[in-house]
Amino acid sequence: MADAHRHDTPLPDSPANLSGLATGAALIATSPDACTPATDAGPARRAGDAAMSIAQTILSGFDRHYALFRYNAQQAKHRYEAGDWHAIRALARERIAFYDKRVQEAVARLETEFGASLRHGAEDAPWLSVKRHYVGLLAAHRQPELAETFFNSVTTKILHRTYFHNDFLFVRPAVATDYLDADPPSYRVYYPLAQGLRGALLAMMVDLGLACPFVDVQRDLALVEAAIDERFGPQGLVAGASQDCQVHVLRSLFFRNKGAYLIGRIVDDGDVVPFAIPLLRDSQGRAYLDAMLFGTERIEALFSFSRAYFMVDMDVPSAYVRFLSTLMPGKPDSELYSMLGLHKQGKTLFYRDMMHHLRHSHDQFVEAAGIKGLVMLVFTLPSFPYVFKIIKDLRRKDMTREFIQGRYQLVKVHDRVGRMADTWEYSDVPFPRARFAPALIEELRKQAPSLLEEEGDTIVIRHLYIERRMVPLNMHLERSDEAERARAMNEYGDAIKEMVAANIFPGDMLYKNFGVTRSGRIVFYDYDEVQYVTDCNFREIPPPRTPEDEMSSEPWYNVGPNDVFPEEFASFLLADRKLREAFVRRHADLLEAPFWRAKQARIRQGVLEDVFPYPDSLRFRHRMDGASLQRREGGATMGG
Fold it and tell me: Which is catalytic among the residues 63, 100, 290, 422?
Protein backbone atom coordinates (compact mmCIF):
# COMPACT_ATOMS: atom_id res chain seq x y z
CA MET A 1 0.00 0.00 0.00
CA ALA A 2 1.41 3.34 -0.94
CA ASP A 3 1.29 6.10 1.62
CA ALA A 4 -1.04 8.83 0.47
CA HIS A 5 0.07 11.86 2.48
CA ARG A 6 0.95 14.75 0.23
CA HIS A 7 1.85 17.55 2.62
CA ASP A 8 5.53 18.52 2.41
CA THR A 9 7.31 20.78 4.88
CA PRO A 10 10.96 21.95 4.69
CA LEU A 11 13.12 20.18 7.23
CA PRO A 12 16.18 21.46 9.06
CA ASP A 13 19.32 19.94 7.59
CA SER A 14 21.97 20.81 10.17
CA PRO A 15 24.62 18.26 11.23
CA ALA A 16 22.93 18.02 14.63
CA ASN A 17 19.89 16.52 12.95
CA LEU A 18 21.91 13.59 11.64
CA SER A 19 23.39 12.45 14.95
CA GLY A 20 21.23 9.32 14.99
CA LEU A 21 22.74 7.92 11.79
CA ALA A 22 25.61 6.21 13.58
CA THR A 23 23.65 3.01 14.19
CA GLY A 24 22.84 2.49 10.53
CA ALA A 25 26.37 3.42 9.44
CA ALA A 26 27.86 0.94 11.90
CA LEU A 27 25.59 -1.82 10.68
CA ILE A 28 26.57 -1.16 7.09
CA ALA A 29 30.27 -1.00 7.92
CA THR A 30 30.24 -4.29 9.80
CA SER A 31 28.13 -6.33 7.40
CA PRO A 32 30.13 -9.19 5.83
CA ASP A 33 29.44 -8.16 2.25
CA ALA A 34 30.36 -4.54 2.89
CA CYS A 35 33.72 -5.46 4.42
CA THR A 36 34.80 -8.00 1.79
CA PRO A 37 37.22 -6.56 -0.80
CA ALA A 38 35.66 -6.23 -4.22
CA THR A 39 36.71 -8.95 -6.65
CA ASP A 40 35.36 -9.93 -10.00
CA ALA A 41 33.68 -13.19 -9.09
CA GLY A 42 31.35 -13.08 -12.05
CA PRO A 43 27.74 -11.97 -12.56
CA ALA A 44 26.44 -13.68 -9.42
CA ARG A 45 28.88 -11.80 -7.21
CA ARG A 46 28.17 -8.50 -8.93
CA ALA A 47 24.43 -9.08 -8.45
CA GLY A 48 25.07 -9.79 -4.77
CA ASP A 49 27.06 -6.58 -4.45
CA ALA A 50 24.22 -4.65 -6.08
CA ALA A 51 21.67 -6.22 -3.76
CA MET A 52 23.71 -5.29 -0.70
CA SER A 53 24.19 -1.75 -1.98
CA ILE A 54 20.45 -1.35 -2.53
CA ALA A 55 19.73 -2.67 0.96
CA GLN A 56 22.30 -0.31 2.48
CA THR A 57 20.87 2.64 0.57
CA ILE A 58 17.35 1.96 1.82
CA LEU A 59 18.50 1.50 5.42
CA SER A 60 20.56 4.70 5.20
CA GLY A 61 17.39 6.52 4.15
CA PHE A 62 15.50 5.10 7.11
CA ASP A 63 18.28 5.96 9.57
CA ARG A 64 18.23 9.55 8.34
CA HIS A 65 14.45 9.63 8.83
CA TYR A 66 14.60 8.33 12.38
CA ALA A 67 17.46 10.65 13.32
CA LEU A 68 15.32 13.60 12.25
CA PHE A 69 12.33 12.11 14.07
CA ARG A 70 14.30 11.95 17.33
CA TYR A 71 15.74 15.40 16.80
CA ASN A 72 12.19 16.71 16.47
CA ALA A 73 11.28 15.20 19.87
CA GLN A 74 14.44 16.63 21.44
CA GLN A 75 13.48 20.04 20.07
CA ALA A 76 10.03 19.65 21.63
CA LYS A 77 11.66 19.27 25.05
CA HIS A 78 13.72 22.43 24.50
CA ARG A 79 10.63 24.35 23.34
CA TYR A 80 8.71 23.18 26.40
CA GLU A 81 11.49 24.36 28.68
CA ALA A 82 11.42 27.72 26.89
CA GLY A 83 7.61 27.95 26.96
CA ASP A 84 7.47 28.35 23.17
CA TRP A 85 4.06 26.74 22.61
CA HIS A 86 3.59 27.85 19.02
CA ALA A 87 6.96 26.32 18.11
CA ILE A 88 5.86 23.01 19.65
CA ARG A 89 2.77 23.00 17.46
CA ALA A 90 4.92 23.80 14.44
CA LEU A 91 7.18 20.84 15.25
CA ALA A 92 4.15 18.55 15.43
CA ARG A 93 2.87 19.78 12.06
CA GLU A 94 6.24 19.48 10.33
CA ARG A 95 6.85 15.97 11.58
CA ILE A 96 3.80 14.61 9.70
CA ALA A 97 5.69 15.07 6.41
CA PHE A 98 9.02 13.61 7.54
CA TYR A 99 8.35 10.04 6.49
CA ASP A 100 7.15 10.72 2.96
CA LYS A 101 10.08 13.04 2.27
CA ARG A 102 12.60 10.42 3.33
CA VAL A 103 10.88 7.76 1.22
CA GLN A 104 10.97 10.07 -1.80
CA GLU A 105 14.66 10.78 -1.19
CA ALA A 106 15.47 7.06 -0.96
CA VAL A 107 13.59 6.26 -4.18
CA ALA A 108 15.33 9.11 -6.01
CA ARG A 109 18.73 7.94 -4.78
CA LEU A 110 18.07 4.36 -5.86
CA GLU A 111 16.97 5.47 -9.31
CA THR A 112 20.03 7.69 -9.66
CA GLU A 113 22.50 5.06 -8.52
CA PHE A 114 20.93 1.88 -9.92
CA GLY A 115 19.00 3.08 -12.95
CA ALA A 116 15.52 2.80 -14.35
CA SER A 117 15.81 -1.02 -14.44
CA LEU A 118 14.65 -1.00 -10.81
CA ARG A 119 11.11 -0.49 -12.07
CA HIS A 120 11.17 -3.15 -14.78
CA GLY A 121 10.15 -5.98 -12.51
CA ALA A 122 11.54 -8.12 -9.75
CA GLU A 123 13.38 -10.39 -12.17
CA ASP A 124 15.44 -7.42 -13.45
CA ALA A 125 16.57 -6.28 -10.00
CA PRO A 126 17.86 -8.54 -7.21
CA TRP A 127 14.95 -7.88 -4.87
CA LEU A 128 14.91 -11.32 -3.29
CA SER A 129 18.56 -10.83 -2.34
CA VAL A 130 17.92 -7.22 -1.36
CA LYS A 131 15.41 -8.31 1.27
CA ARG A 132 17.75 -11.03 2.61
CA HIS A 133 20.63 -8.57 2.94
CA TYR A 134 18.31 -6.02 4.54
CA VAL A 135 17.24 -8.53 7.19
CA GLY A 136 20.90 -9.15 7.95
CA LEU A 137 21.50 -5.42 8.41
CA LEU A 138 18.68 -5.29 10.97
CA ALA A 139 20.19 -7.93 13.26
CA ALA A 140 21.40 -5.36 15.80
CA HIS A 141 19.13 -2.47 14.79
CA ARG A 142 17.04 -0.75 17.45
CA GLN A 143 14.10 0.14 15.23
CA PRO A 144 13.85 -2.95 13.01
CA GLU A 145 10.05 -2.92 12.72
CA LEU A 146 10.12 0.69 11.50
CA ALA A 147 12.96 -0.06 9.11
CA GLU A 148 10.98 -2.96 7.63
CA THR A 149 8.03 -0.65 7.01
CA PHE A 150 10.34 1.90 5.39
CA PHE A 151 11.65 -0.85 3.10
CA ASN A 152 8.05 -1.61 2.09
CA SER A 153 7.31 2.05 1.40
CA VAL A 154 10.34 2.40 -0.87
CA THR A 155 9.91 -0.86 -2.78
CA THR A 156 6.17 -0.37 -3.37
CA LYS A 157 7.05 2.82 -5.23
CA ILE A 158 9.39 0.81 -7.49
CA LEU A 159 7.80 -2.62 -7.97
CA HIS A 160 4.44 -3.45 -9.53
CA ARG A 161 1.63 -4.51 -7.21
CA THR A 162 1.96 -8.15 -8.32
CA TYR A 163 5.18 -8.30 -6.29
CA PHE A 164 3.52 -7.14 -3.07
CA HIS A 165 3.97 -10.38 -1.13
CA ASN A 166 6.29 -11.71 1.52
CA ASP A 167 9.07 -12.78 -0.87
CA PHE A 168 9.78 -9.17 -1.75
CA LEU A 169 8.17 -7.16 1.07
CA PHE A 170 7.79 -7.48 4.82
CA VAL A 171 4.17 -8.60 4.75
CA ARG A 172 5.06 -10.27 8.04
CA PRO A 173 7.82 -8.96 10.32
CA ALA A 174 11.18 -10.69 9.96
CA VAL A 175 12.92 -9.36 13.09
CA ALA A 176 11.34 -9.92 16.50
CA THR A 177 11.15 -7.00 18.92
CA ASP A 178 9.65 -8.84 21.92
CA TYR A 179 12.65 -8.38 24.20
CA LEU A 180 14.40 -5.54 22.41
CA ASP A 181 15.31 -2.57 24.59
CA ALA A 182 17.72 0.33 24.77
CA ASP A 183 20.83 0.75 26.89
CA PRO A 184 20.03 2.28 29.34
CA PRO A 185 16.58 0.63 29.37
CA SER A 186 13.49 2.46 28.18
CA TYR A 187 12.07 2.84 31.69
CA ARG A 188 13.51 3.64 35.11
CA VAL A 189 12.70 1.67 38.27
CA TYR A 190 12.23 3.10 41.77
CA TYR A 191 11.72 1.19 45.03
CA PRO A 192 9.34 2.90 47.51
CA LEU A 193 10.12 0.43 50.32
CA ALA A 194 13.84 1.09 50.16
CA GLN A 195 13.78 4.78 49.26
CA GLY A 196 10.54 5.79 50.94
CA LEU A 197 7.69 6.95 48.73
CA ARG A 198 8.71 10.62 48.91
CA GLY A 199 12.33 9.74 48.18
CA ALA A 200 11.35 7.62 45.19
CA LEU A 201 9.13 10.41 43.84
CA LEU A 202 11.86 13.02 44.29
CA ALA A 203 14.39 10.83 42.46
CA MET A 204 11.83 10.36 39.71
CA MET A 205 11.46 14.14 39.24
CA VAL A 206 15.22 14.78 39.33
CA ASP A 207 15.78 12.14 36.66
CA LEU A 208 13.47 13.99 34.26
CA GLY A 209 16.26 16.50 33.71
CA LEU A 210 14.01 19.47 32.96
CA ALA A 211 15.94 22.71 32.48
CA CYS A 212 13.33 24.89 34.18
CA PRO A 213 12.55 25.58 37.86
CA PHE A 214 9.53 24.24 39.72
CA VAL A 215 7.01 26.41 41.55
CA ASP A 216 7.25 24.19 44.66
CA VAL A 217 8.38 20.63 43.99
CA GLN A 218 7.99 19.48 47.61
CA ARG A 219 4.38 20.68 47.69
CA ASP A 220 3.68 18.89 44.39
CA LEU A 221 5.30 15.66 45.58
CA ALA A 222 3.20 15.80 48.75
CA LEU A 223 0.10 16.05 46.56
CA VAL A 224 1.24 13.09 44.44
CA GLU A 225 2.05 11.08 47.58
CA ALA A 226 -1.40 11.82 49.01
CA ALA A 227 -3.08 10.81 45.74
CA ILE A 228 -1.15 7.51 45.68
CA ASP A 229 -2.02 6.73 49.29
CA GLU A 230 -5.70 7.45 48.59
CA ARG A 231 -5.59 5.14 45.58
CA PHE A 232 -4.15 2.26 47.66
CA GLY A 233 -6.55 2.54 50.58
CA PRO A 234 -6.28 3.48 54.27
CA GLN A 235 -2.82 1.98 54.73
CA GLY A 236 -1.37 3.77 51.71
CA LEU A 237 1.08 2.22 49.26
CA VAL A 238 4.16 1.58 51.38
CA ALA A 239 2.49 0.17 54.52
CA GLY A 240 0.52 -2.40 52.56
CA ALA A 241 3.03 -3.11 49.82
CA SER A 242 4.72 -6.40 49.05
CA GLN A 243 8.50 -6.78 48.93
CA ASP A 244 8.58 -6.40 45.15
CA CYS A 245 6.73 -3.05 45.08
CA GLN A 246 8.20 -0.90 42.29
CA VAL A 247 7.46 2.28 40.38
CA HIS A 248 8.32 2.14 36.66
CA VAL A 249 8.53 5.35 34.64
CA LEU A 250 9.29 5.70 30.94
CA ARG A 251 12.59 7.47 30.48
CA SER A 252 11.35 10.23 28.15
CA LEU A 253 8.55 12.69 28.75
CA PHE A 254 5.65 12.80 26.32
CA PHE A 255 5.20 16.30 24.86
CA ARG A 256 2.06 17.72 23.27
CA ASN A 257 1.14 21.38 22.98
CA LYS A 258 1.70 23.07 26.37
CA GLY A 259 1.95 19.87 28.38
CA ALA A 260 4.53 17.23 29.24
CA TYR A 261 3.41 13.86 30.58
CA LEU A 262 5.27 11.46 32.81
CA ILE A 263 3.92 7.97 32.05
CA GLY A 264 4.42 5.07 34.45
CA ARG A 265 3.02 2.18 36.44
CA ILE A 266 3.07 0.99 40.03
CA VAL A 267 3.74 -2.75 40.27
CA ASP A 268 2.87 -4.46 43.53
CA ASP A 269 2.72 -8.24 43.92
CA GLY A 270 2.01 -8.64 40.21
CA ASP A 271 -0.76 -6.02 40.08
CA VAL A 272 -0.17 -3.14 37.70
CA VAL A 273 -1.64 0.32 38.32
CA PRO A 274 -1.10 2.68 35.35
CA PHE A 275 -0.56 6.36 36.07
CA ALA A 276 0.28 9.61 34.33
CA ILE A 277 1.41 12.93 35.78
CA PRO A 278 0.87 16.03 33.61
CA LEU A 279 3.48 18.77 34.01
CA LEU A 280 2.50 22.35 33.17
CA ARG A 281 4.24 25.72 33.40
CA ASP A 282 2.99 28.95 34.94
CA SER A 283 3.31 32.44 33.46
CA GLN A 284 6.75 32.82 35.06
CA GLY A 285 8.13 29.74 33.34
CA ARG A 286 8.03 27.51 36.42
CA ALA A 287 6.88 23.91 36.15
CA TYR A 288 4.35 22.21 38.38
CA LEU A 289 2.57 18.86 38.60
CA ASP A 290 -1.07 19.37 37.71
CA ALA A 291 -2.72 16.03 38.50
CA MET A 292 -2.25 12.34 39.20
CA LEU A 293 -4.19 10.20 36.74
CA PHE A 294 -4.74 6.54 37.65
CA GLY A 295 -6.06 3.62 35.67
CA THR A 296 -6.37 2.39 32.12
CA GLU A 297 -9.39 4.57 31.33
CA ARG A 298 -7.56 7.81 32.17
CA ILE A 299 -4.44 6.80 30.25
CA GLU A 300 -6.49 5.75 27.23
CA ALA A 301 -8.09 9.21 27.20
CA LEU A 302 -4.62 10.75 26.83
CA PHE A 303 -3.88 8.41 23.92
CA SER A 304 -7.28 8.79 22.26
CA PHE A 305 -7.54 8.57 18.45
CA SER A 306 -9.12 12.05 18.58
CA ARG A 307 -6.00 13.75 19.98
CA ALA A 308 -2.78 15.01 18.47
CA TYR A 309 0.27 12.75 18.38
CA PHE A 310 2.87 12.94 21.13
CA MET A 311 6.50 13.87 20.59
CA VAL A 312 8.72 11.39 22.45
CA ASP A 313 12.46 10.78 22.14
CA MET A 314 12.73 6.97 21.88
CA ASP A 315 15.79 4.90 21.04
CA VAL A 316 13.72 1.69 20.91
CA PRO A 317 10.08 2.53 20.12
CA SER A 318 8.94 -1.09 20.37
CA ALA A 319 9.95 -1.05 24.06
CA TYR A 320 7.75 2.01 24.62
CA VAL A 321 4.83 0.34 22.88
CA ARG A 322 5.35 -2.83 24.92
CA PHE A 323 5.30 -0.76 28.14
CA LEU A 324 2.22 1.20 27.07
CA SER A 325 0.43 -2.04 26.21
CA THR A 326 0.65 -3.08 29.87
CA LEU A 327 -1.15 0.15 30.77
CA MET A 328 -3.75 -0.07 27.98
CA PRO A 329 -4.13 -3.76 27.12
CA GLY A 330 -7.22 -3.12 25.01
CA LYS A 331 -5.60 -0.57 22.71
CA PRO A 332 -4.03 -2.09 19.56
CA ASP A 333 -0.35 -1.52 18.84
CA SER A 334 -1.34 0.23 15.62
CA GLU A 335 -2.93 3.06 17.61
CA LEU A 336 -0.06 3.20 20.11
CA TYR A 337 2.55 3.60 17.36
CA SER A 338 0.38 6.27 15.74
CA MET A 339 0.02 8.22 18.99
CA LEU A 340 3.82 8.14 19.37
CA GLY A 341 4.04 9.97 16.05
CA LEU A 342 4.92 6.83 14.07
CA HIS A 343 1.71 6.91 12.06
CA LYS A 344 3.13 4.98 9.10
CA GLN A 345 3.99 2.08 11.41
CA GLY A 346 0.49 2.39 12.81
CA LYS A 347 -0.92 2.04 9.29
CA THR A 348 1.23 -1.02 8.63
CA LEU A 349 0.10 -2.75 11.81
CA PHE A 350 -3.52 -1.81 11.21
CA TYR A 351 -3.39 -3.40 7.77
CA ARG A 352 -1.89 -6.58 9.23
CA ASP A 353 -4.59 -6.61 11.92
CA MET A 354 -7.27 -6.19 9.27
CA MET A 355 -5.89 -9.03 7.13
CA HIS A 356 -5.71 -11.26 10.22
CA HIS A 357 -9.30 -10.40 11.09
CA LEU A 358 -10.49 -11.16 7.56
CA ARG A 359 -8.88 -14.60 7.76
CA HIS A 360 -10.70 -15.32 11.02
CA SER A 361 -14.15 -13.93 10.23
CA HIS A 362 -16.78 -14.46 7.60
CA ASP A 363 -19.18 -11.46 7.63
CA GLN A 364 -19.35 -9.05 4.69
CA PHE A 365 -18.56 -5.38 4.19
CA VAL A 366 -21.76 -3.36 4.01
CA GLU A 367 -22.70 0.30 3.85
CA ALA A 368 -22.38 1.95 7.25
CA ALA A 369 -25.52 2.80 9.19
CA GLY A 370 -26.73 6.39 9.20
CA ILE A 371 -27.67 9.08 6.72
CA LYS A 372 -25.77 8.75 3.46
CA GLY A 373 -23.20 11.45 2.87
CA LEU A 374 -23.20 13.90 -0.02
CA VAL A 375 -19.47 13.53 -0.59
CA MET A 376 -18.30 10.27 0.98
CA LEU A 377 -19.42 6.67 0.60
CA VAL A 378 -18.90 4.89 3.91
CA PHE A 379 -18.79 1.14 4.46
CA THR A 380 -17.87 -1.10 7.35
CA LEU A 381 -17.32 -4.70 8.41
CA PRO A 382 -19.73 -5.29 11.33
CA SER A 383 -17.23 -7.49 13.21
CA PHE A 384 -14.40 -4.92 12.86
CA PRO A 385 -14.67 -1.57 14.72
CA TYR A 386 -13.70 0.75 11.85
CA VAL A 387 -15.30 2.52 8.91
CA PHE A 388 -13.89 2.89 5.39
CA LYS A 389 -14.57 6.16 3.59
CA ILE A 390 -14.09 6.92 -0.08
CA ILE A 391 -14.73 10.14 -1.99
CA LYS A 392 -17.59 9.72 -4.43
CA ASP A 393 -17.22 10.54 -8.12
CA LEU A 394 -20.81 11.78 -8.06
CA ARG A 395 -20.76 14.39 -5.29
CA ARG A 396 -23.72 16.53 -4.32
CA LYS A 397 -21.45 19.36 -3.22
CA ASP A 398 -19.51 21.64 -5.51
CA MET A 399 -15.99 20.70 -4.40
CA THR A 400 -13.12 18.85 -6.04
CA ARG A 401 -11.53 15.62 -4.86
CA GLU A 402 -8.28 17.53 -4.26
CA PHE A 403 -10.09 20.07 -2.06
CA ILE A 404 -11.65 17.32 0.06
CA GLN A 405 -8.31 15.55 0.49
CA GLY A 406 -6.82 18.89 1.49
CA ARG A 407 -9.45 19.26 4.24
CA TYR A 408 -8.59 15.84 5.63
CA GLN A 409 -4.90 16.70 5.53
CA LEU A 410 -5.60 19.98 7.34
CA VAL A 411 -7.10 18.02 10.23
CA LYS A 412 -4.27 15.47 10.11
CA VAL A 413 -1.61 18.10 10.80
CA HIS A 414 -3.75 20.13 13.21
CA ASP A 415 -4.31 19.81 16.94
CA ARG A 416 -7.46 17.66 17.19
CA VAL A 417 -8.09 18.56 20.88
CA GLY A 418 -9.88 15.27 21.54
CA ARG A 419 -12.78 16.26 19.29
CA MET A 420 -11.75 15.22 15.76
CA ALA A 421 -11.14 11.63 14.72
CA ASP A 422 -7.77 10.63 13.35
CA THR A 423 -7.77 9.03 9.89
CA TRP A 424 -5.47 6.55 8.19
CA GLU A 425 -5.14 7.25 4.48
CA TYR A 426 -4.40 4.37 2.08
CA SER A 427 -3.95 3.85 -1.64
CA ASP A 428 -4.47 0.70 -3.73
CA VAL A 429 -5.91 -1.50 -1.01
CA PRO A 430 -6.89 -5.05 -2.13
CA PHE A 431 -9.92 -6.76 -0.59
CA PRO A 432 -11.36 -10.23 -1.26
CA ARG A 433 -14.42 -9.77 -3.45
CA ALA A 434 -16.33 -12.47 -1.56
CA ARG A 435 -16.31 -10.31 1.57
CA PHE A 436 -18.25 -7.48 -0.12
CA ALA A 437 -22.04 -7.59 -0.06
CA PRO A 438 -23.39 -7.44 -3.64
CA ALA A 439 -25.34 -4.27 -2.84
CA LEU A 440 -22.13 -2.57 -1.70
CA ILE A 441 -20.29 -3.55 -4.89
CA GLU A 442 -23.10 -2.06 -6.95
CA GLU A 443 -23.00 1.12 -4.89
CA LEU A 444 -19.23 1.39 -5.39
CA ARG A 445 -19.64 0.93 -9.15
CA LYS A 446 -22.32 3.60 -9.19
CA GLN A 447 -20.83 6.18 -6.83
CA ALA A 448 -17.05 5.81 -7.24
CA PRO A 449 -16.12 3.85 -10.39
CA SER A 450 -12.82 5.73 -10.74
CA LEU A 451 -11.65 4.34 -7.37
CA LEU A 452 -12.75 0.76 -8.02
CA GLU A 453 -10.56 -1.84 -9.72
CA GLU A 454 -11.96 -5.35 -10.09
CA GLU A 455 -9.40 -8.11 -10.66
CA GLY A 456 -10.98 -11.56 -10.56
CA ASP A 457 -11.50 -12.48 -6.90
CA THR A 458 -10.04 -9.18 -5.71
CA ILE A 459 -11.42 -5.67 -5.39
CA VAL A 460 -8.87 -2.87 -5.20
CA ILE A 461 -9.86 0.50 -3.73
CA ARG A 462 -7.52 3.10 -5.15
CA HIS A 463 -7.92 5.60 -2.32
CA LEU A 464 -9.69 5.52 1.03
CA TYR A 465 -9.71 6.81 4.59
CA ILE A 466 -10.15 4.58 7.64
CA GLU A 467 -11.49 5.82 10.98
CA ARG A 468 -12.66 4.35 14.26
CA ARG A 469 -16.35 3.47 14.05
CA MET A 470 -18.69 5.52 16.21
CA VAL A 471 -22.45 5.79 16.59
CA PRO A 472 -23.67 8.83 14.61
CA LEU A 473 -24.98 11.45 17.02
CA ASN A 474 -28.37 11.69 15.29
CA MET A 475 -28.91 7.95 15.79
CA HIS A 476 -27.69 8.15 19.39
CA LEU A 477 -30.18 10.92 20.16
CA GLU A 478 -33.03 8.92 18.64
CA ARG A 479 -32.24 5.88 20.82
CA SER A 480 -31.50 7.63 24.13
CA ASP A 481 -33.66 8.63 27.07
CA GLU A 482 -34.16 12.27 28.03
CA ALA A 483 -31.28 12.40 30.51
CA GLU A 484 -28.78 10.98 28.02
CA ARG A 485 -30.06 13.28 25.26
CA ALA A 486 -29.42 16.28 27.53
CA ARG A 487 -25.93 15.03 28.37
CA ALA A 488 -25.13 14.41 24.70
CA MET A 489 -26.29 17.90 23.67
CA ASN A 490 -24.06 19.41 26.32
CA GLU A 491 -21.16 17.30 25.00
CA TYR A 492 -22.02 18.38 21.46
CA GLY A 493 -21.69 22.04 22.46
CA ASP A 494 -18.44 21.32 24.29
CA ALA A 495 -17.08 19.61 21.17
CA ILE A 496 -17.82 22.64 19.00
CA LYS A 497 -16.27 25.03 21.53
CA GLU A 498 -13.11 22.96 21.89
CA MET A 499 -12.69 22.78 18.11
CA VAL A 500 -13.16 26.56 17.97
CA ALA A 501 -10.44 26.91 20.62
CA ALA A 502 -8.13 25.05 18.20
CA ASN A 503 -9.12 27.45 15.36
CA ILE A 504 -11.33 24.88 13.59
CA PHE A 505 -14.81 25.71 12.31
CA PRO A 506 -16.57 22.44 11.47
CA GLY A 507 -18.69 23.95 8.70
CA ASP A 508 -21.46 21.38 8.55
CA MET A 509 -22.54 20.94 12.18
CA LEU A 510 -25.44 18.54 11.56
CA TYR A 511 -25.67 15.76 14.14
CA LYS A 512 -24.93 13.11 11.50
CA ASN A 513 -21.38 14.46 11.17
CA PHE A 514 -20.57 13.80 14.83
CA GLY A 515 -20.08 10.42 16.47
CA VAL A 516 -20.38 9.06 20.00
CA THR A 517 -17.44 6.99 21.25
CA ARG A 518 -17.68 4.01 23.61
CA SER A 519 -16.96 6.37 26.51
CA GLY A 520 -19.79 8.72 25.48
CA ARG A 521 -17.55 11.44 24.11
CA ILE A 522 -18.76 13.43 21.09
CA VAL A 523 -16.24 13.53 18.22
CA PHE A 524 -16.46 15.21 14.80
CA TYR A 525 -15.55 13.09 11.76
CA ASP A 526 -16.73 14.76 8.53
CA TYR A 527 -14.08 17.17 7.29
CA ASP A 528 -15.02 18.23 3.77
CA GLU A 529 -16.24 21.66 4.96
CA VAL A 530 -13.81 22.41 7.80
CA GLN A 531 -11.96 25.70 7.74
CA TYR A 532 -10.03 27.90 10.11
CA VAL A 533 -12.18 30.02 12.42
CA THR A 534 -9.99 32.99 11.50
CA ASP A 535 -10.95 32.60 7.82
CA CYS A 536 -14.67 32.99 8.54
CA ASN A 537 -16.72 36.19 8.67
CA PHE A 538 -19.22 35.85 11.52
CA ARG A 539 -22.16 38.19 11.02
CA GLU A 540 -25.56 39.05 12.42
CA ILE A 541 -28.49 38.85 10.02
CA PRO A 542 -29.46 42.44 9.19
CA PRO A 543 -33.07 43.41 9.96
CA PRO A 544 -35.49 43.22 7.02
CA ARG A 545 -35.98 46.51 5.20
CA THR A 546 -39.61 45.87 4.29
CA PRO A 547 -42.39 43.37 5.09
CA GLU A 548 -41.65 41.83 1.69
CA ASP A 549 -38.06 41.17 2.78
CA GLU A 550 -39.30 39.40 5.87
CA MET A 551 -41.59 37.12 3.84
CA SER A 552 -39.07 36.41 1.09
CA SER A 553 -37.60 32.90 0.68
CA GLU A 554 -34.34 34.49 -0.49
CA PRO A 555 -32.00 36.55 1.75
CA TRP A 556 -32.40 40.32 1.40
CA TYR A 557 -28.69 40.82 2.16
CA ASN A 558 -25.44 39.93 0.44
CA VAL A 559 -23.76 36.69 1.55
CA GLY A 560 -20.04 36.23 0.94
CA PRO A 561 -18.37 32.81 0.48
CA ASN A 562 -17.00 32.77 4.06
CA ASP A 563 -19.94 34.47 5.79
CA VAL A 564 -21.43 32.59 8.74
CA PHE A 565 -24.60 33.61 10.60
CA PRO A 566 -24.58 31.84 14.00
CA GLU A 567 -28.18 32.80 14.80
CA GLU A 568 -29.23 30.48 11.96
CA PHE A 569 -27.78 27.46 13.78
CA ALA A 570 -30.88 27.22 15.94
CA SER A 571 -33.16 26.84 12.91
CA PHE A 572 -31.48 23.82 11.35
CA LEU A 573 -29.83 22.23 14.41
CA LEU A 574 -32.26 22.78 17.29
CA ALA A 575 -35.74 22.26 15.90
CA ASP A 576 -36.52 19.74 18.64
CA ARG A 577 -37.65 21.78 21.65
CA LYS A 578 -36.11 19.52 24.32
CA LEU A 579 -32.80 19.30 22.49
CA ARG A 580 -32.79 23.07 22.12
CA GLU A 581 -33.47 23.59 25.82
CA ALA A 582 -30.65 21.23 26.78
CA PHE A 583 -28.25 22.95 24.37
CA VAL A 584 -28.94 26.58 25.26
CA ARG A 585 -28.67 25.83 28.97
CA ARG A 586 -24.87 26.02 28.59
CA HIS A 587 -24.17 26.89 24.98
CA ALA A 588 -26.50 29.72 24.00
CA ASP A 589 -23.42 31.81 23.21
CA LEU A 590 -22.72 29.58 20.18
CA LEU A 591 -25.83 31.09 18.58
CA GLU A 592 -24.43 34.63 18.76
CA ALA A 593 -21.89 36.19 16.38
CA PRO A 594 -20.03 38.14 19.15
CA PHE A 595 -18.93 34.83 20.74
CA TRP A 596 -17.28 33.73 17.50
CA ARG A 597 -15.66 37.10 16.83
CA ALA A 598 -14.24 37.16 20.36
CA LYS A 599 -12.70 33.72 19.76
CA GLN A 600 -11.24 34.95 16.47
CA ALA A 601 -9.64 37.90 18.22
CA ARG A 602 -7.99 35.68 20.85
CA ILE A 603 -6.66 33.28 18.22
CA ARG A 604 -5.22 36.18 16.20
CA GLN A 605 -3.53 37.44 19.36
CA GLY A 606 -1.75 34.08 19.64
CA VAL A 607 -3.71 32.86 22.66
CA LEU A 608 -3.88 29.07 22.97
CA GLU A 609 -7.04 28.19 24.86
CA ASP A 610 -7.12 25.70 27.74
CA VAL A 611 -8.32 22.26 26.63
CA PHE A 612 -7.58 19.55 29.19
CA PRO A 613 -7.65 15.82 28.36
CA TYR A 614 -8.76 14.93 31.89
CA PRO A 615 -11.52 16.21 34.20
CA ASP A 616 -10.94 19.50 35.96
CA SER A 617 -11.94 17.83 39.22
CA LEU A 618 -8.72 15.77 39.17
CA ARG A 619 -6.42 18.80 39.10
CA PHE A 620 -4.32 19.40 42.20
CA ARG A 621 -5.49 23.02 42.31
CA HIS A 622 -8.64 21.77 44.05
CA ARG A 623 -6.51 20.28 46.85
CA MET A 624 -4.53 23.46 47.54
CA ASP A 625 -5.06 26.29 49.98
CA GLY A 626 -5.30 29.89 48.82
CA ALA A 627 -1.61 30.65 49.32
CA SER A 628 -0.51 27.68 47.22
CA LEU A 629 -2.89 28.64 44.42
CA GLN A 630 -1.63 32.20 44.46
CA ARG A 631 1.94 30.98 43.94
CA ARG A 632 0.77 29.03 40.92
CA GLU A 633 -0.39 31.96 38.82
CA GLY A 634 -1.06 31.90 35.10
CA GLY A 635 -1.66 28.19 34.51
CA ALA A 636 -1.01 26.42 31.21
CA THR A 637 -2.96 23.85 29.27
CA MET A 638 -2.62 20.39 27.89
CA GLY A 639 -4.26 21.47 24.62
CA GLY A 640 -5.46 18.14 23.27
Answer: 422
